[in-house]
Design goal:
heterotrimer; A alpha/beta; B alpha+beta; C alpha+beta; A: alpha/beta; Rossmann fold; five-stranded parallel beta sheet; four-stranded parallel beta sheet; 17 helices; B: alpha+beta; 60s Ribosomal Protein L30, Chain: A; Phosphoribosyl-aminoimidazole Synthetase, Chain A, domain 2; four-stranded mixed beta sheet; 8 helices; globular
């Protein structure tokens, strides 16, 4: 496919690997922020190729992994309500809440519909006026415009049977929290190319100056990733730090103004709990007051309260908590997914990894999604 | 019920007079040589999907299991569990396509059973088929005999059935809707026979297997376990169709892990891959057959793949349900 | 996060900002995608689509430059290697 295949060229990839290996004077520690990047790095064997010269720490950029268990529990309750359909992205279905996943709920008769796009859920609501369609709105800044558009469409159509369970998160505040957590070893970042496509990268300038770490806006194909890694490594070797754009075919400095406008019309920035990381200041979005009619948390408040009561032990710690998992966020004490999400340990350093915790029976969220750092490790690196 | 069976079902499976059976069992004539016997149940939603339906799927599924065991299918049984409320025309359509599939495979449907269950207790229709076939000697040697250097062949573009079903079931809005590869594998196997690759002293086929649930990856793992070596494939050599490539990128899926229903993996002795591919390409069902890898000395992973960087990466089986990704 | 794939705009269907739609081709399949964030995209252009919404128009010139830059790296590489 055009604009994918060219960026998978094995010969160029090999040269980039060689170039990076030649440049590095000491082992470097980089974080790829986005789960899609983790997937691609491991799938194509890039992480293995750069073993010993560049250690890649997998960042928190897997939205299904950082969606709080309470939100998943709430989604499950909604799916079990009569005449309610929960519309969700496919990979969200496997993620465990406090005790079970949406897939479990679906197999017990819960109404869970997989959608490719939140806009498909608007059509669903339009064609089934007797059903209430709730979109499980997860994802980063990339995905927020898609659910915001769904709200705008539903508002224009005057739909009364459509709402959102908003669990969107913002990536830069999470990077900020990571840099502030004690023990953070990250020397440079591969910023998430599709997030930056929407947001641009102006706001990374002050981050770079504050933390003196290079940030390379990076795409997802092997050449893109290697190009971003090369950029970070070059800067580190030259003792520089700046924001550079290594995904210029998609990302402009100012981002996508229309997408930003759509998001700010519908959402406002809010402090938000992240699974495994705790509440992150300005770490997510909530619906503006004028769209509260589309807020599932308000429409189904009694159900939400029921879920909250049942799982009040799930209240997350303040950010910076040093426990492996903020109280109750992970279903098991054995699970160190909080540390994995912070880049403090690699998945294989967790005693449960690959034994008590596997993709078939995950203890923590990063083992669930294919993009989760633990699942990606399990899939691609277990035997290496 | 009797009306359903006598009016709708039986007329679609015209038995020849020699087999006209007493009501409880088909009486089958004697066959020389070994018999192969297999059974499989089919649960698929939706019942009709681009390129096929559950009737055709159920017959070819069993026929293909016989074909890759080196057998010619002779007789098939077909049992239906029908959910109350399934429209009769739907059932008729499915039965007709099962009958047509059996005819295409040269097999007869000689026995069957029908049960009706209350609404909401079955997903429209479940079908179970069993098949008896005559083994044409000698059958493939078996995956335990795979040796270092043996070549791995896939008979056509992969991942088509699973994607077709997913896109149809979840109404993902792709156009044209991807089609299943649901097809009969007897002809491709026959091409190997005709090229004298499956017989006697020149027998070079070690193993054949239709890549159904779990796709090509699942078969590779099964064989790797049987032979104790590493099965290694090259991503760039694996045939795919443009619609499956596009759909797999959009949905974040790996075609290697997606079910096929008319595509098989063939393992042949070292140095004979090209001849086997030439033979397979004589059949329209396997005209895109290709060598995709080889058997290597057991490394750390049972199955490995070379992707963009050309380094060997472990290729794991899909765990759990196949779900489209957002991230 | 954020699986997004480049596809070619085949034809515009609707220009209304809230309901902007075009048919977009991804190798062998097409899908209707929302186009409000890439209102300037022409038929034949490539757009990057995430969850049914086009989030950017591919800058062909930048794509070419990136590849040229990487290819040059290879050439430098070869010329700097000592002769065999």
């Amino acid at each position: 496919m055009k604009h994918l295949d060219e960026f998978r060229d094995p010969k160029l990839a090999r040269r980039l690997v060689d170039e990076i290996r030649r440049t590095v004077s000491q082992p470097r520690v980089l974080m790829e922020v986005c789960g899609g990047q983790t997937h691609s790095l491991l799938r194509h064997g890039i992480a293995t190729e750069l073993n010993e010269v560049v250690e890649l720490i997998h960042g928190p950029g897997c939205p299904v992994c950082v969606t709080p268990a309470e939100a998943i529990d709430f989604a499950q309750q909604l799916a079990l309500e009569p005449n309610v359909v929960l519309a969700s992205f496919g990979d969200m279905l496997r993620v465990p809440g406090t005790s079970r996943s949406l897939l479990d709920v679906r197999s017990r008769g819960g109404h869970v519909k997989i959608v490719y796009s939140p806009l498909d859920a608007v059509d669903l609501a339009r064609h089934h006026p007797d059903q209430h369609v709730v979109v499980f709105a997860v994802g980063f800044e990339t995905t927020a415009p898609t659910t915001a558009l769904a709200v705008l469409q539903a508002a224009t159509l005057g739909l009364k049977n459509f709402s959102l369970l908003v669990a969107h998160v913002r990536v830069l505040p999470a990077m900020e929290a990571l840099m502030q957590s004690p023990g953070c070893r990250v020397e440079g970042f591969l910023a998430a190319g599709h997030v930056c496509t929407v947001t641009g990268f102006d706001e990374y300038e002050s981050f770079v100056q504050r933390h003196k770490t290079p940030v390379a806006v990076t795409g997802f194909e092997p050449l893109d990733l290697l190009n971003g890694i090369r950029e970070c490594v070059n800067q580190l070797e030259a003792n520089q730090c700046e924001v550079t754009n290594r995904y210029a075919r998609s990302v402009r400095q100012e981002g996508n103004a229309s997408a930003q406008e759509i998001v700010s019309q519908v959402y406002e920035i809010a402090d938000t709990p992240w699974r495994g990381l705790g509440v992150i200041l300005k770490g997510g979005y909530r619906l503006h007051g004028e769209f509260e009619a589309f807020d599932a948390a308000l429409r189904f408040e009694t159900i939400l309260r029921r879920v909250d009561d049942r799982s009040n032990m799930l209240t997350v710690d303040e950010q910076g908590s040093q426990t492996g998992c903020p109280a109750g966020v992970c279903p098991s004490d054995d699970c160190r997914s909080g540390e994995v999400l912070r880049g403090l340990i690699k998945p294989v350093e967790c005693a449960a990894f690959g034994t008590r915790c596997t993709p078939d029976s995950p203890l923590g969220a990063p083992m669930v999604s294919a993009e989760g750092a633990c699942a990606a490790y399990f899939k691609y690196q277990r035997t290496i | 019920m009797r009306e359903l069976i006598e009016g709708t079902i039986l007329p679609r499976f015209g038995h020849d007079s020699e087999l006209r059976a007493p009501p409880d069992a088909a009486v089958l004539p004697q066959v020389t040589g070994n018999l192969a016997f297999t059974t499989d149940s089919f649960v698929v939603s939706p019942l009709f999907f681009p390129g096929g339906d559950i009737g055709r799927l159920a017959v070819f599924g069993t026929v293909n299991d016989l074909a890759v065991a080196g057998a010619l299918p002779l007789w098939i049984s077909l049992s239906l569990i029908i959910e109350e409320g399934l429209p009769i025309p739907v059932l008729e359509h499915i039965l007709e396509s099962a009958a047509a599939a059996a005819q295409e495979a040269g097999a007869q449907i000689v026995a069957g059973d029908t049960k009706v269950v209350p609404a909401e207790t079955a997903d429209g229709l479940f079908v179970t088929t069993s098949g008896i076939g005559r083994v044409l000697p000698p059958p493939p040697l078996g995956p335990e005999t795979l040796h270092v250097g043996d070549e791995l062949i896939v008979s056509g573009p992969i991942g088509r059935h699973g994607i077709a079903i997913l896109v149809a079931r979840e109404q993902l809005g792709l156009n044209p809707p991807p089609e299943t590869d649901c097809a009969c594998l007897l002809d491709p196997v026959q091409q190997l026979r005709d090229a004298e690759l499956l017989f006697g002293g020149r027998c070079v086929v070690r193993a054949m297997r239709d890549a159904t649930r779990g796709g090509v990856t699942a078969v590779l793992h099964e064989w790797a376990q049987a032979c104790g070596q590493t099965l290694s494939v090259r991503e760039s050599d694996i045939p795919t169709t443009p619609d499956i490539r596009g759909a797999a990128e959009l949905l974040g899926l790996d075609p290697l892990q997606i079910a096929c229903e008319g595509t098989m993996l063939v393992a042949v002795k070292s140095g004979t891959g090209k001849a086997a591919v030439r033979a397979l390409r004589n059949s329209s069902t396997s005209r895109d057959a290709a060598i995709i890898g080889e058997v290597k000395k057991r490394g750390l992973a049972p199955v490995s793949i070379q992707r963009a960087l050309g380094t060997e990466q472990p290729l794991d089986e899909l765990s759990g349900a196949m779900l489209p990704r957002i991230c | 996060m954020c699986l997004a794939v480049p596809g070619r705009v085949i034809r515009w269907i609707d220009r209304d900002p809230t309901f902007a739609q075009a048919e977009v081709e991804f190798d062998g399949v097409r899908r209707t995608c929302h186009m409000a964030c890439v209102a300037d995209a022409q038929e034949g252009d490539y757009v990057i689509v995430h969850a049914g919404v086009a989030i950017s128009r591919v800058d062909e010139e930048q794509a070419r430059l990136t590849l040229a830059d990487l290819a040059r790296l290879g050439e430098l590489d070869e010329s700097s290697e000592p002769p065999a």
